[in-house]
Please model this.
Amino acid sequence: MTSRAASAEDSGADSEGTVSPGLRIISPARPIDQEGVGTAVRSLLLALGHDPDSEHLARTPERVAAAYVELLTPPEFELTTFANDEDYDELVLARGIPVHSVCEHHMLPFLGTAHVGYLPGQRILGLSKLARVVELFARRPQVQERLTKQVAGWLQTHLQPRGVGVVIEAEHMCMTLRGVRAAGTSTITSTLLGALREDPRSRAEFLALTTAAPAAGPGGRHA
Model:
């Protein structure tokens, strides 16, 4: 099967409305000018009254530039889907997906977890891809509200399930390290689409499972 590349905004649906199993997902963001970031960090250190040529700061611009490249560059991945041959019609939920992003207002990190679920239609998704989709949208300057909607909307478009739900809980360093300095405060956002929004029982099941205590144990579909 031949793969093709698509940006995060590409629909990825074939003529019959199902997802192409060979779709390769890439970030639509422009490449980061790592050298330019280093130069900007050097200027920032000077503006803050520090000597970027001192022994302890000499490599700081280089290190900061490399860190931002890592923080803001999501890896490419294959969108692995499988035919729903068993006609599975119950909730599929991945809980506790790590979220690492950068607040676009202050360029400080926000960290937390995402719970992502869907009610399958004709295809089911490799479970690791739920985490990949979160990473795809988290590794860019973001606000949590938009991140939550983007993950849900992307899955709805690409997978075409009967419903999608996304809940993100995160702590924002721009709120804990500056301003009000409310350490330990978390922000929760949610987006529900399709049956998970419209059907009360499906909605209640999803929200109950995202707040239940996690169960330990091996296993799962990771392709």
